[in-house]
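Allow me, if you will, to draw on your knowledge of protein folds for a short while. The matter concerns a single protein, recorded as an amino acid sequence and a row of backbone structure tokens. Could you please explain, in whatever detail you think fit, how the structure tokens follow from the sequence? I remain grateful for any guidance, and I place the record below:

…
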Amino acid sequence: MNNHLCIGPEVAKALAAGKPVVALESTIISHGMPYPQNVETALLVEKTIRDNGAVPATIAIIGGKLKAGLSREEIEYLGRKGQEVAKASRRDLPVLVARGADGATTVATTMIIAAMAGIKVFATGGIGGVHRGAETTMDISADLEELSQTPVMVVCAGAKSILDLGLTLEYLETKGVPVIGFGTDELPAFYTRKSGFGVDYRIDTEKELAEAFKAKEDIGLKGGMLVVNPIPEQYSMDPDYISQVIDEAIKEANSRGIKGKKVTPFLLAKVAEKSGGESLASNIQLVLNNAIVASRTAAALSLLK
């Protein structure tokens, strides 16, 4: 066992018994929403996972410990601290651990800690990807590299629509990451169900998702699997409208010189502001939808020998 890893009691018991567990990230708590909505949403996502037959494992770094399975008090702590907590990707782990610091985990870091703990399925909102203009900035999320090497299935609503979706798919193809549409032939674009880009395969049941992941393990292929699950129709935003809002937010970020880790939180906050909160409501619903699919897939995976 890794001396820096701390698995919560409920999660440890479930893993030991071979029961389904679903990992959850923590940047959505610290950087994704304002308090107290961030805490309320985190607890609602955990409840949704339990209601669908799995055990939630919210992941973060608390006091230098890699935590898989936060208590309610720890979720409240992260929610109150908000953006004071470091946004932690792979490169940040050594220093945060050595300093005994706190960190909210991105998709990449959540995958790392989930894999350490033996958790195979992870539900999130949307992955990071290749940013617009990356041909000159080289701004490419570490999430994509992690998907190529860490054996965790990530269930999301596609790549965030603030990104260059075409280049993101090309990068994933190069890295050998299968992009599977759950009940769709098209890559969803986070706030919207369509993007104009196709997926590698369409799968319509959680049982088949589990079987595909188990086959990847049995073959011995490294890396993860990306499952893209469209936002429910009733919460999907108008594609033209959201594109206009995102374009305006990107222009503002560029004019203010916002770069690196600060780009995504800034853009998401601006999109929420410019859409009158509609994007935030959609964000919550798509996360809950992904939690349901991830829970049922983890349950199906736990039955496979």
